[in-house]
Amino acid sequence: MTDALIDTLAHTRKALKLTQAELAQAAGLSRMAVQRTETGEVDPRHSTLSEMARVLGLELLAVPRDLVPALQAFIQSGGKYLAQPSGADAPLSVVEQLALPGRTLPGQSHTPPKAKPPR
């Protein structure tokens, strides 16, 4: 798990075209701390990983192990798994909220229906 996290951090840093030194400076770490973390030379502290993630625009999130498959399916579906099962005691899902009268999707303009001309 830590290897996948560190790989994600290193890949994101490279995708953002940041050097290890630039990431280190922005995160308040030494360049050697970033290098040793990325190469697996050290077992990094949570605070080190958290600061690296913050600078890269990522968030570390602890998810209960039994929910990981559902979360992965949700992410892979592009967020299309939003409706609550019937009878679930939970707030309205995003899909249900958008279905409320007068609600629109982000980026859509709400235009009221045109009245029919009199006959």
From TrEMBL:
InterPro entries noted in UniProt: Cro/C1-type_HTH, Lambda_DNA-bd_dom_sf
Domain of life: Bacteria
PROSITE patterns given in the database record: HTH_CROC1
Region listing for Disordered, in residue ranges: 100-119
GO molecular function: DNA binding
Span of the signal peptide: none
SUPFAM superfamilies in the cross-refs: lambda repressor-like DNA-binding domains
Residue intervals of the HTH cro/C1-type domain: 9-63
SMART domains assigned: HTH_XRE
A Pfam cross-reference name: HTH_3
Protein name: Transcriptional regulator
